[in-house]
Amino acid sequence: MNSLGPVIWLLAVILSLSVIGGGECSDYRLSRNVLPTFYDLTISLRGDAENPEEIFDGEVKITLHALQANVQQITLHKDNIDILSNAQLYNDAGLIVEDIVNTSMTYKQETQQLTLHLEQPLVAMQSYVLLFKYTGIVRTDMTGLFSASYIEEQTGKTKWMALTQMQRLNARLVFPCFDEPALKAKFQVHIGRPNGLNAISNTKLLETTDDGHNRFVDHFDVTPLMSTYLLAFMISDYKARGNLSDFAVVSRPDYYNKTQFSYQVGQQVMSAFGKLFHQPYPDLGNQALLYASSPRFPHNGMENWGLILYKDAVLVQDPGYTDGWEDQEYCIRILAHETSHMWFGNSVTFKWWSYFWLNEAFARYYEYFMAHQLYPEYQLDEQFVVRQLQMIFATDAIATAQPMTSSEESIQTPSEIGWKFSSIAYAKGASIVRMWHNAMGAEKFENAIGNYLKEHHLGNTEPNDLFAHLKENWAAHETLDLDEFFYDFTEQVGYPMIIVNISQDHQIITLRQKRFLLNPGDGSDADIRYTVPITYTTNLSPNFQNLTPEMYFEKSRDMVNLNFNDPIEWIVLNLRQSNYHRVFYDTELLNRIQGALTKTGHSGIAVENRAAFIDDLFNFASIGSIDYVEVFQFMEYMSIETDYIPWYAAFLGMTRVAKRLTPEQLPNFNKYLSDITDAVYKKLGVSWSSKDKVLDVYNRNKQVAWLCKYQSEDCNNQVWEKFEAESEKPSPDYRETFYCAASRSGGYERVLEFYEKEVDPSTRELLWRAASCTREYGKHYHDKILGNALSVSLKTIGLAQLYEQNPDLVTPIFKMMTEDITQLANSLDSWQKTAQALSDLADYFTTREQQTLFSQFIEESHMLFGSSSDILRKAMTTVDSNLEWAELRLGPLGNYLIERNSAGELAVAATMLLLISTFLSLWAI
Q1: pLDDT at 497 > cutoff 80
Q2: Using CA atoms, how far apart are residues 863 and 880, in angstroms rounded to an integer?
């Protein structure tokens, strides 16, 4: 098990590492003169199952080799662990070569590097074993080896457990190691534990031995070659659904009957990936794949090879509470994401953290598209556009945007590495992968990815390794420079907007490009250009299925023309928003597109494009390229729109605008909202049904939340009638929205009663939020928020709900809170928290009168807040900025809503007069 292994394998690893050496940094990167190949690791917990101790005992034997002659020191990582006595170095015959005393070790805290100075140089290519005995800390901060606990349902006892989180740089908290992703090795883990607990790790359990004194040691199989950050183990009293040597979901015994769904999904996902990549999971080198849940975990999931750790909420579906459509979708997506990492990240790993997207871009992509393949009812291919691509556009349009790929030299320190763990790696990365897939076609893309995974199995890669396979499978195109195309979207920041103009004869479309920036004056480079795939269709022969680019807009060109033999009525670019750019249509084209959308079936225009029109328009308006009036005029077509995807984009876009509307403007906004939601509201209503389609469930949530919040009389009346007549609980997806609307429309006392009786903690908080939607703000504030029965956290949540869910009541709520500010500070146990609560409220101010009230309050009361008065002053600056933005951007919109609604009322009056006149004339006859 500790043997050298095949010489060919070693030479391959050395070759791989030689590429990385060029990016070394002497301060933070380990030298490449010593290579680890095997870790024999023993971790022993102290204490017993009911009384764990904070210290653990460790022993690690690291098999390593010098890659060159005259190596006289070994440098590796450790952090917050104490080496006991000396370290020993053995040769491959098991004979001690050197006893390395503490005085021969030096440690740099900044780089977390331990250097062992040897008396004799290592012999190149000879196998050695380095032994450390040490102690470490069972932490509480969810890094390294940390503790968690839960309350057993039947007994009320506290149950303890310990588990690991090694990513990013936390393996060094658990054992001395070469803690860099390219320094792969095999691991064998042994866990010493008290009786009453059990252990799981990356691989299957081989045997358990009795260590005496009511303690046992679990011995696990050797792992595949892998990076240190993927090592994992967990010690608990958990129970497995399935076979621990094959596939299982591991959770606390109370949850055993609540993991059927995640177990089923996991089996499907693992099998589907094996078929897609032509590499079944066991062929990667590990027979076992375990999903384990934890009451405390820093992420949704962590892709440790063979032992994926998740938050409880991912794996556990509690009937009637956490088994709604949204809960199940969450489970499906996260399981697909983390399981894909067994191929992308574990089998094939990035060479350095600067290439982190090589893991996460594919995991996020398959999170949606493998899940869509297995569970098409969630329409995750469409949801991807609004929840990932359109979401990341905002992050990628500011001065602090980072490229997907950074140079190795620029990513060295822990904070620099942490910087790469951004949504750019995940959401932009997935969007770019989707663009490649659609441009290449599914067959060519899958061939490229399959070949990439096979060639680099158990290895480390950089982007060029992936690009080589993409280029090999990409269809030839006379003008496309693939190297430049890949560079533009992975090493450059940002993305373009394509500006579209139509000629007078409607036969020529002119395209120009510029970088889209949310704030052109923020220091961003506005001159960046991109190689842009161009897809389009027209009214002459609409086809939204062919996503192969018609052409590529080279970055060196200023303008491109599309010529048509016959005049066109309309054109849509970026079909299904497949490519990573926005589209700015001239006014004539935009009007023609809106006309097409008002026709039967929206003229066949895809839902993704309907969402793209709306998202683009709101963003163009936010930077002043168009006026919000144009956006709201365009959205008039939505009075016949019933699909969720465009509505998702619309509600997201309207969020910022609605938040800035004054109390006087809100009634006109409510009228507009009621008009454009006419068709979808009639279709969905306020009632739920087991026959609802998934996206209809999501859509109803949005519609009812918005319409009732902005005081649609029909919405509030229907909710109230349903609430009064219905004893059945709403579905889990809809529960908070419905009870919030019910509380607002008169059901406050009853919703509060539900809250008082509920025992499930998460549902109890949901009901508190819902009760806090009430318009009886004075009663709720004085009876509940100022009382002593609630935690400060719930009080601040309740306060926020009062004004967020009743935007027309912001002023009276502020006056109520500040009438006796000391009383509120006592209730929140802190002037700092009180200042923050006022600051949060002030973000909803929309008038100069509110600003004056706030200014006067600060002037009169700032001394009470001490140093926390700075929070109030910063809030005042934000209020100023918000009001200036609204006055600059929303003045014409307010006038438009008034005129529009007045015109509507006049039209209704004219219709009534015509009917009366007709009736009278008939009567006269």
Answers
A1: yes
A2: 22
